[in-house]
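The instructor's notes for this session suggest beginning with a concrete chain rather than abstract definitions. Hand out the sequence below and ask the class to guess, before any prediction is shown, which regions might be ordered.
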Amino acid sequence: MGGLIDVAFPYRVKKSFGAASFALVFLVIIGEVEALVLVALGIVAHRFDLFVDLQPVLLPGACFIGLTSAGTFWWRARAWTKARIASLSLWAGGATAFGDRLVKSRTPQH
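After discussion, reveal the predicted structure:
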């Protein structure tokens, strides 16, 4: 029942970073790039007409930035999400179970 928060932070419901999370990051970055250029050209430079005229160049550029950023985040989130889910699973077992696993992982095996 978390909705958008579960898409943005899928590890909270013990899910991996999937297509919905990728799409959300992609769309947010496109919106941020467009908003940044709108503020720079439309508000600071008082050239809103230039912002509109540059859309054939600006939108593909924003899509490229969003795609590469979301792809990089997805690539890095795979390992991070797995580690986060494992950590949450250990904590769900209780503090003693977490401590027992931690001790086993740090003791040298002969």
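Then share the key points. The longest helix spans residues 55-92. Residues 4-106 form one domain.
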